[in-house]
Write a structure and sequence with these properties.
By secondary structure, the protein is an all-alpha fold. It folds into 2 domains: 91 residues, Endonuclease Iii, domain 2, CATH 1.10.1670.10; 100 residues, Hypothetical protein, domain 2 (Endonuclease III, domain 1, Orthogonal Bundle). Helix content is 56%, strand content 0%. It has 10 helices and no strands. Helix 2 runs antiparallel to helix 7 and helix 4 packs antiparallel against helix 5. The termini are far apart.
Length: 224
Amino acid sequence: MAKSPQSQPSRRLAPAERARISEIFTRFESLSEDPRTELDYSSPYTLVTAVALSAQATDVQVNKATARLFAVADTPEAMLALGEDGLIPLISSIGLFRTKARNVIAAARIIVEQHGGEVPLNRDDLQALPGVGRKTASVVLNELGIEPAIAVDTHVFRVAHRLGLARGRTPDQVEAELMAIVPEAARVRAHHWLILHGRYVCLARRQKCDACPLADLCPSRGKT
């Protein structure tokens, strides 16, 4: 069974804090009602492959590579036919491309041999695929509307701390905290709202506080 994120002591939220958190996600919704991944995909297989390739790479870099890749191999069967030697030149612009190529081919083989060519859309089987960890599985399950998961990458980790939504020191701890305090109706979209906010507004350096729609709700406003 896939390991769950490390549990954290539950935070007792004062009514004012609960109202602040609710308002944060209300504003996110007013800005983008149905946020989606910026990775290009056309099926569960291309989605899980794109997300696995995106580790330590930007979505822009991955989309450029997968535009070429998925034109020739957008199913696990086609990926196996392409092989590791055929895959490497198509993804060589992405970091860790040799390791990723090995994992993509190994995952395609498992999907074909153990799952009849269909991506298993449950957490345990997804996380059993080479190159697919908890974060990748969470992105896939959330994007496809299967599970209201909150995948914690560097953007989500940073924004959650700056907004005072989490205090955890690891992604798993932050995930557990977010799942406990994010309003239930917002959980399926929280990952995308937080990651997009971190990507375009709450930058790692020189965050755009003056243009931030959450500035009056943020305890880190104006801080570096």
